[in-house]
Amino acid sequence: MFLERFEKEPEAIAIASLEYPFLSTALIDEGLDTLTIFNSESVISVTSNKGPFYRHTGKSLKAIFDQDKYTSYERESLYQSVGGLMVATYLGFKKHNRLIGERVSHLLVNEEHSFGVLSNFQFELFKRIVDSEKMKHQGTADLLSLHSL
To answer: How many C-beta atoms surround the C-beta of residue 78 within 10 A?
Structure first.
C-alpha cells in the first residue's frame, strides 16, 4: 500500500479529484481544518439545495420533507457531494477501509469549486473558460508592454 512507505503515519488523507479543475489549495486547507475543528473522521465538499424536491410514489410526485410548504429550514436542505474533495483521518481510513467514515462533516463550496468536467458539454465550457482567462492575461501583458514603450 502506498501509505505504508512513510516512516511516520500521516494524520489525514486528502483526495482532490482532477474532474474538478477549480479546486484550490485554500479549500484543501479548509477541509483539513474542518476535520480537526469538528473532530470528524471525514469531510466532503458539498453544495446545498433547499428544493423543493419530489419523489415518484408510483402514482404521483410527492414533495419530500414537506418542501411544498412556504417555510424552509436548514435541516430540510439536501446536500450533494460535489467539488471532488474528500478528507479523512488516517485512523478512520484504517478503521473503515474507506474515506467516508461514520462521523462526516461537510464543506460548503461555491459554484466555481463545485464545477466538474464530467461530460463533453462541461469539457467544452471548461475550455472556453480557460481560453477566456488566457485572453484576459494576454490583454494585461499587452497593456504592460505598451506602457513600457
So the answer is: 14
Note the pLDDT tens digit of each residue in 57-73.
999 998 887 655 655 56
Q: Decide: 43 and 52 in contact? Cβ < 8 Å.
A: no
Where do the structural domains in the chain lie, given as residue ranges?
Answer: 2-116, 119-149
* 144 beta partners: none
Domain covering 2-116, topology: Spore Coat Polysaccharide Biosynthesis Protein SpsA; Chain A (3.90.550)
Tell me the per-residue pLDDT of 73-96, one tens digit each, with 9 for 90 and over: 666 678 899 978 999 999 999 999
> Does the pTM of the predicted model rise above 0.85?
no
Say if CB 41 and CB 97 are below 8 A apart.
no
